[in-house]
Amino acid sequence: MLYIADFHIHSKYSRATSRSLDLENIDLWCRKKGINICGTGDFTHPKWLSEIKEKLVEAGNGLLALKNQEEKIPQPPLTRGQEKIPSTSFIKGGNMVYFILTTEISCIYKQGGKTRRIHLILFAPTIEVVEKINQELEKRGCNLKSDGRPIVGLSAKEVAKIVFAASPDCMVIPAHAWTPWFSVFGSKSGFDTIEECFEELAPQIFAIETGLSSDPAMNWRLSKLDKITLISNSDAHSPENLGREANVLEIVDSKNLYQDIVRILKEKDNKQFLYTIEFFPEEGKYHFDGHATCKISLSPEETKKNKGICPTCRKPLVIGVLNRVEELADRPEGEQPANLIPYKSLVPLREIIAEAMDQGRATKRVVAEYDKLIARGESEFNILLNLDYEDLKKITLSEIVEGIKRVREGKLIIAPGYDGVYGTVKIFSEQEKKKNRQERLL
Fold it and tell me: Which class for 139: exposed (0-12), middle (13-18), buried (19 or more C-beta within 10 A)?
């Protein structure tokens, strides 16, 4: 069976997240998106863990599922002449949404004469193991009630020790590994190698999350990562952002999906890990160097010319992901390792609809068209990845079909993000939008 998995998300108990991030809404939006396996997020938070215990049950396959889960998402009625496009079995796991126990930890500590800020994704096989991890963190003075993504004064290695002691089946994966401020390779507070960060525990770190501002091709430039599995997740702070990055796995006749996922990531099994689904990395908010307050965005070459100094305020620039990759890379751009896992870059469907309709992504017209498309195309990923153009033309506007086509072909207009400012991805030029507006008035 093929599964789309988004392991790193957050709950309503994390800072700066939507209040609608409860288990019911996560389940609903996973169905809309076409996600089969979703991280619970935030299992260190006592209130969220209580909800996990209350609302999820063992699914009989090593993962959890929502109690009394229905098989279909709510769909608006179809009017006469509207046909539903049948699934082409892109996702064979069915409509069920399974949950895997995950959380994110923010480690802030001193090492090597420098303040380190490292975010880690933790995976646990059972609630009993989660409780062991939480108890050990609390024994060390960690305040788990303060935030769904708690800040702890422990090193990444200390957290890893706690997690692996709770169960050898746990995983520790560095989150968004390249972002400047909070990552294992971050330009502001990270390390140059996994070994430097985790020391003797480094062999037990067998995967990293590439993050929104980098894609696998950028990571392939570091030969030290050839044995490391690259995963991609949404880090969603709202239900609508679930699946903006994800992982596509093929798992046949599984008796324990959790154990299968661990093995696939540990072995970097590119026969069962088919590909990752990616943001265009330029859209990430730390791709280029720059200064948000000065509205300055610079490529690595431009930063070098300016000697790392903002040309406006004369203070040091925030060095972005692309520049940091350039610094650590030992391969030229375009060179690939032998055992790579491929990837596909997408733009979320609501953004494509908004571009095609020349509307805001949260407007009633865009939301209505999105819901109609999900009702007729089965899921967002089925629409973006699988349906052919003739089928798409039966269920939506020609401009939206053209937008999906351009995304698949990578024919986009992109302005890179920098210093916390998201980049912009445009599908249609301003001239094309103007022409479309005029045609709609005729």
Answer: exposed
